[in-house]
């Protein structure tokens, strides 16, 4: 037997997996397990006498109008608005910026309980047709629909089996390129766990049935590739950017000649042929295509590639890499400019540059916080951007770049019954186990007394090049305001806060740095008298759920309460379900012996053990039956292991619970009422676990 196969068998032979049966969501045993768990957890969370107060307060604080930036399509403006407690935001249309808004599409009318959400959308080049994806119960699957923007009339066809898909129009307004999985067998409602392979890029002509659609791009020898596609700003080119996991993509292109039928495979020219960096199309200036890339630039930069002479030695830097700040995104505006958004020590910095030579033309001043939303196009000089921070719910600015005017506040979002002046946001840098300085935001009352008595809610994510920047979160503010709490957000490695070096510092064989960074954040908060372990709660979702569960296994003594939402818990098998195989770019795969050992070291499911002294903190796992990003089996297997290993020990008096939501998924598109319910559960669990008093 080959040494590698022998080694794998030996290793895997050592690893028990007694709850493998929980991997079948449709078996009677799994359904009974889910019901039995919910039957314990729901009464536990409902038994909290402060629950109603917490729920009412969350609802009251949530009930403020939320807006997106307005965006121009055709001769109209469109924007999303939620009056406050609507389950889904509504898409409005205006003839002018101060015209009377009219409802354009209200997703709340598409389901009784608000579980149908708009997951993606794109207007045709002339604004005459609106293509939009609808997802149900939080699944990543969506169906694509088409609407005439003048009459509001729906086209008859609905595109099915769409997932991880672009929507990009040919500039003749005739149809769209989109991604689908025609070979997917069985259920495609998000409750299934089957892997997604063999995505195809198709072209759909509006007004025709999907059966007439043609596969225009496929990579038969690469079943794992997801095919990114974008029609260029000028409409002449189709840029194809296949990606295999969660980083590094290739670049192909083809010319879209006027009148092209698009009824056969496209002949692609390959520009980038090595999976070694990210290349994101920004715009093009004639044959000069601009990409945001980290190729030779861990903080990212903009390069120009001449599509007619695309050899690498001919690539030129348009916006060189900044030595410290991360180029987060760029958008072409006003014909010959682009807006660049940087991350500087975790806060957003917004600048306008020349598309001709990249030079900086002006800054757009911001407070300490985040640009959460931007609207601008190469063909318009008017741009909009929305700013948020921990204490600012949203300010939308408008500026017309054709003149030197200062940005004007278009809309300032107000929250009732919350006096932000009572609170402050500090950014501190603490030292992690290996000496690395880690930034952390701390939000609390101005008059807080640091005597170790305050409860803390510590949040982290730590992966996939994702930067956790300041945002306005009602749940966290209720914790600060009504539990006299301290909110701490640790920008641990694995994220993108300091570019590629930060991401690489927390992935593959450096993954333990992420857990060390988070545990050191907790120790910093204790040493500096913000709190004590018994008053310290930790919260994370998805990859952040892995963070929570791994840190609880490694330091059960450090935390008073732990909440892991939709966590990745089985690090030996995650790649076998839905899109899990894409995560090997951060985690590696247990199919590779060197990664097998590394994964086994921190996999939450495989590292539950009885603590030498004391017990595990109060632990709540949250998942949902239609989560097809991180399938619920991860959390089901972990809670079974926790309860079976620790649940009967006399010293384990803290609860070890799970709640499985129905008609819900990974989080995207979740209706407001379900979000408030879940936030109530989280705060109730913290109140009960830390023995806090909720003060209205
Ligand atoms: O899997 C991911 N991204 C990584 C991801 O979602 N992860 C990675 C680990 C668990 C989970 C999380 O942290 O949210 O994206 C798949 C996707 C979705 C939509 C369009 C294109 C591609």
TrEMBL record:
UniProt domain Peptidase S9A N-terminal: residue ranges: 15-407
GO cellular component: cytosol
Keywords, alphabetical: Hydrolase, Protease, Serine protease
GO biological process, one term: proteolysis
One Pfam family named in its UniProt record: Peptidase_S9
Keyword Nucleotidyltransferase (UniProt): no
Signal peptide range: none
Highest rank taxon of the organism: Eukaryota
GO molecular-function terms, A-Z: oligopeptidase activity; serine-type endopeptidase activity
Residue intervals of the Peptidase S9 prolyl oligopeptidase catalytic domain: 475-691
InterPro entries named in the record: AB_hydrolase_fold, Pept_S9_AS, Pept_S9A_N, Peptidase_S9_cat, Peptidase_S9A, Prolyl_oligopep/macrocyclase
Catalyzed chemical reaction(s): Hydrolysis of Pro-|-Xaa >> Ala-|-Xaa in oligopeptides
EC number, as in UniProt: 3.4.21.-
Cited SUPFAM superfamilies: alpha/beta-Hydrolases (SSF53474), Peptidase/esterase 'gauge' domain (SSF50993)
EC top class named in words: hydrolase
Assigned protein family: Belongs to the peptidase S9A family.
Descriptive protein name: Prolyl endopeptidase
Provenance organism: Ceratina calcarata
């Amino acid at each position: 037997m080959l040494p590698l196969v022998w080694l794998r068998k030996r290793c895997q032979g050592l690893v028990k997996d007694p709850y493998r049966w929980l991997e079948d969501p449709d078996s009677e045993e799994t359904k009974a397990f889910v019901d039995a768990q919910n039957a314990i957890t729901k009464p536990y969370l409902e038994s909290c006498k402060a629950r109603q107060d917490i729920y009412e307060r969350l609802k009251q604080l949530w009930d403020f109008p939320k807006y997106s930036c307005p965006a121009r399509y055709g001769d109209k403006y469109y924007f999303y608005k939620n009056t406050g407690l609507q389950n889904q935001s509504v898409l409005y249309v205006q003839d002018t910026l101060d015209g009377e808004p009219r409802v354009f599409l209200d997703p709340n009318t598409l389901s009784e309980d608000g579980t149908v959400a708009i997951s993606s959308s794109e207007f045709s080049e002339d604004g005459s047709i609106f293509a939009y994806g609808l997802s149900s119960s939080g699944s990543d699957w969506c169906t694509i629909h088409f609407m005439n923007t003048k009459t509001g009339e729906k086209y008859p066809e609905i595109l099915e089996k769409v997932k991880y898909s672009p929507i990009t129009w040919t500039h003749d307004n005739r149809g769209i390129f989109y991604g689908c999985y025609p070979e997917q067998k069985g259920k495609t409602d998000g409750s299934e766990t089957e892997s997604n392979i063999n995505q195809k890029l198709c072209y759909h002509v509006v007004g025709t049935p999907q059966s007439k659609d043609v596969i225009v791009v496929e990579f038969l020898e690469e079943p794992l590739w997801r095919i990114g596609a974008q029609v260029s700003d000028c409409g002449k080119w189709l840029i194809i950017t296949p990606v295999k996991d969660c980083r590094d993509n290739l670049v192909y292109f083809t010319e879209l000649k006027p009148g092209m039928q698009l009824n056969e495979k496209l002949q692609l020219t390959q520009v980038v042929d090595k999976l070694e960096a990210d290349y994101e199309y920004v715009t093009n200036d004639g044959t000069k295509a601009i990409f945001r890339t980290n190729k030779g630039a861990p903080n990212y930069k903009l390069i120009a590639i001449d599509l007619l002479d695309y050899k690498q030695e001919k690539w030129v830097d348009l916006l060189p890499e900044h030595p410290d700040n991360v180029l987060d995104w760029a958008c072409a505006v006003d014909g010959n400019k682009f807006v660049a958004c940087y991350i500087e020590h975790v806060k957003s910095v917004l600048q306008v540059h020349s598309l001709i030579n990249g030079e900086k033309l002006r800054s757009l001043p911001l407070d300490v916080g985040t640009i959460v939303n931007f609207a601008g196009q190469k063909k318009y000089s008017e741009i909009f951007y929305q700013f948020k921070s921990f204490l600012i719910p949203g300010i939308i600015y408008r500026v017309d770049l054709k003149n030197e005017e200062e940005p004007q506040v278009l809309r300032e979002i107000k929250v009732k019954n919350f006096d932000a002046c009572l609170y402050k946001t500090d950014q501190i840098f603490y030292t992690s186990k290996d000496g690395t300085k880690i930034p952390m935001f701390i939000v609390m009352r101005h008059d807080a007394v640091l005597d170790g008595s305050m409860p803390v809610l510590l949040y982290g994510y730590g992966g996939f090049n994702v930067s956790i920047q300041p945002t306005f979160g009602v749940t966290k503010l209720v914790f600060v305001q009504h539990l006299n709490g301290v909110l701490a957000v640790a920008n641990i490695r694995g994220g993108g806060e300091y570019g590629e070096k930060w991401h690489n510092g927390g992935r593959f064989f450096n993954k333990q740095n992420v857990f060390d960074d988070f545990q050191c954040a907790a120790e910093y908060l204790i040493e500096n008298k913000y709190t004590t372990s018994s008053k310290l709660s930790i919260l994370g979702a998805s990859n952040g759920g892995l963070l929570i569960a791994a840190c609880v296994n490694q330091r059960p003594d450090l935390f008073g309460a732990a909440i892991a939402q939709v966590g990745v818990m089985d690090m030996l098998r995650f790649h076998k379900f839905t899109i899990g195989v894409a995560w090997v770019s951060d985690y590696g795969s247990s199919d590779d012996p060197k990664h097998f050992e590394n994964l086994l070291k921190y996999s939450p499911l495989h590292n539950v053990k009885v603590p030498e002294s004391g017990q595990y903190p109060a632990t709540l796992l949250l998942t949902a039956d239609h989560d097809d990003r991180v399938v619920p089996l991860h959390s089901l297997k972990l809670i079974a292991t926790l309860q079976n290993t620790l649940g009967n020990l006399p010293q384990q008096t803290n609860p070890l619970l799970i709640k499985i939501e129905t008609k819900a998924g990974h989080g995207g598109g979740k209706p407001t009422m379900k979000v408030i319910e879940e936030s109530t559960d989280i705060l109730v669990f913290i109140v009960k676990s830390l023995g806090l008093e909720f003060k209205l």
